[in-house]
């Protein structure tokens, strides 16, 4: 059937390990949109990727009826607007604004310290850990009385943070530092379990035994790089 | 009348020199929304600012019917959704996605090199200049056949980039480096003139004789800071 239609309607260009690509996969699954997935090798980018995302040359790229959209935040909004059933964003402008605020919060106040927890050590790492835990505490408050950030169902903020539910325990395992303690962040712990076992996510997560050595190698590379100037 | 209503409906907390606050002022003017403007002193933040934006403690903050919204990107979307006449975003999901893409492009690929042009020197500054000019070239292409990024009228992307139309010449004056050359970027030059003289912008720009020494002092402070490790 797809061959008869010529170009399949929706194509996602991604890489298996990208949390940004996962966001798009989850949003498409929530909407029930069928798509062709194309795995990209970022060390040897395909002509298709370079053609569809000439500015950033990155994944994810969503191609819908031959028109390409890049950047996960832009793609998620597009998916929510092009397929309006099962909305990811709430209806009211103020509620929408709050959802967007928390997505931006993740970009600005949570992802950067988490990354530093993975890629630094000693004092710098301890400061990053404290900063990440402070941000996670604000998310804990947001979950008061709610199953998901989106309320009773998964919404934009859940999809946005979702990859962290999977990656934070990997960072904890590699660094030996605790970030999400059941005792201190019980709602967030429950949310992580609920989200990761939800139908939207089931079967989409990259194998932990492939992701863990990948992040461990990144940590080693960053620590080695940070050491170099001292040795000169 | 406003006193009888009790709390005025729309309040904007800002500082005179912030390009992020300018974006919000322009959007409100395009929509014809009346508001109370409150100038904040960021060295001595008001209880109101700390109450309304406890996470970031930054301006702009828009308060609408007692509910606060922070982050200029979130505020602009809110304004466009709460006052839907004179839309800032186009109607079609794909066109919307393109507008959001270019706003994110400014955040990721234009603002950072422009800032480095202002705050560094020598090789680092020359690289930043080349990078900024490359990004500006992509914007030049976007303006083909259009008066504004939004088409015949000012849209989200115009409001997003708008402050740069004013700030780039100030950076050029301080650093002695050319960024927007009429010969190479004629559409962007015309857009800068058109935008800055548009009714949305008229009378909102901070006085150049106050902004220029402010940015010049920032440059000096960054250069002095960069020198310090070498002196130790």
UniProtKB/TrEMBL annotation, chains A, B:
Domain GST C-terminal: 92-217
Annotated Pfam families: GST_C, GST_N
Gene Ontology MF terms: glutathione transferase activity
GO cellular component terms given for this protein: cytoplasm
Listed EC numbers: 2.5.1.18
Domain of life: Eukaryota
Protein name: glutathione transferase
PANTHER family: GLUTATHIONE S-TRANSFERASE U8, GLUTATHIONE S-TRANSFERASE, GST, SUPERFAMILY, GST DOMAIN CONTAINING
Domain GST N-terminal: 8-87
Broadest EC class assigned to this enzyme: transferase
Keywords in alphabetical order: Transferase
InterPro entries: Glutathione-S-Trfase_C-like (IPR010987), Glutathione_S-Trfase (IPR040079), Glutathione_S-Trfase_N (IPR004045), GST_C (IPR004046), GST_C_Tau (IPR045074), Omega/Tau-like (IPR045073)
Family the UniProt entry places it in: Belongs to the GST superfamily.
Keyword Transferase: yes
Catalysed reactions listed for this entry: RX + glutathione = an S-substituted glutathione + a halide anion + H(+)
Keyword field contains NAD: no
Species this protein is from: Zingiber officinale (Ginger)
One biological process term in Gene Ontology: glutathione metabolic process
